[in-house]
Amino acid sequence: MSTFLANTQRYVEEACRTLAIPADVTKQLMTPHREVRVECNVAMDDGSIGTFMGFRVQHDDSRGPFKGGLRYHHHVDSDEVTALASLMTWKTAIVGVPFGGAKGGIAVKARELSEAELQRLTRRFVDGIHDIIGATKDIPAPDVNTNGQVMAWIFDQYTKYHGYEPGVVTGKPVALRGSVGRDAATGRGVIFALEELLTTLGESPQGLTAAIQGFGNVGTWAARDFVTLGGKIVAIADIAGTFVNPAGIDVEAAAAYARQHRSLAGFTGGEHLAGDAVLFTECDVRIPAALASVLTKDNAGDVRARIIVEGANGPTTPEADAIFAQRGIHVIPDVYANAGGVTVSYFEWSQNQQHFYWELERVNAELRKVMQRGFETLAKTRRKYDVSFREAAFIAGVGRVWDTTTTRGL
Ligand code: NAD
Asked: In the chain, N or C: fewer CB atoms in 10 Å?
């Protein structure tokens, strides 16, 4: 079993123990409902055949249809997708959106494929899973290396089998019945989560510094909103390495550069350092917004920040978590901090059901409410059980799924 999956299981088991959930029910809660693995054969631009494995793990649907992103990355395997699907189950429960948990992925070096190849790959994947997805079954959304365009292809391919059904995916382009504000939602939710914590500390983002690992959807929007609130981004990183600027990175310039060049390679708005240097830059707030298991027992002692807000899924190992707790560093966990994405996905899905579309102000105001309520849940659970924010999050999420699972019965 991979470290990421083992760590995820460990948090769930601990929550089950705290809640005194019987062993048989613990097993039921932890076991994914369904795992699908499909071969995707793609006609490549050079005339050869590319064969890729696609995965969809549906973890739990006791609270509503399965819901979770779709990742294109060469690290994707059954364990990673299972861990991410499990996190979705607890995340949707923590913030109270009426979905279960799922995740999908294709093992592929996405950056090495042309746009046309990516489209064909996406359509072959839908050919393999169309029967198990749908607006009332399982609703994919963007994740690493997927975006609104990929969701549009999924929607289109699904429609060929089942007719017009925009609610089959979220994170669609607005022109195809997406929601305004969905592209910004995860990063925006990260900053709302930060604001909630800062309020309890009697602080505000004004004048604080932040370093962000991962400068894609989540990282760029978190950076933008942090700067809007008066903070300064002193370091950013993507696959091309770390870029440090104590005077403040020009976020819009960096985002435009990354969009145009598909990475920050060659960006001159900051000193270029090695890949993980972003983890050790002096700052108030650290936002991991790339991949899992980057904050470990080997580097947690060197991380310089007062606050860590997890935009990425699973960036901190349990050993690193313990070191951060000892060092008095506040960690706002992924299952709450990055729930803004699935929350606005829920708004998008609701709009699709009603064929009535909201304005951005409403999306942002409702997202703020959900993140506030989520933080209250964490804070209350934390006080009740005298635990960390992460433990509180898992206890709250697992408790709600336990309740619906038991009430529905076998
Ligand atoms: P993305 O593909 O838009 O961006 C990923 C970024 O991470 C890119 O800038 C990439 O260059 C960078 N990256 C990849 N490997 C790296 C490495 N080794 N070191 C430094 N940077 C690296 O993906 P995203 O949608 O922004 O997702 C980022 C994280 O947030 C993932 O963990 C994802 O699961 C999580 N997340 C995303 C959403 C969403 O709505 N997109 C919602 C919840 C959680």
From this structure: C
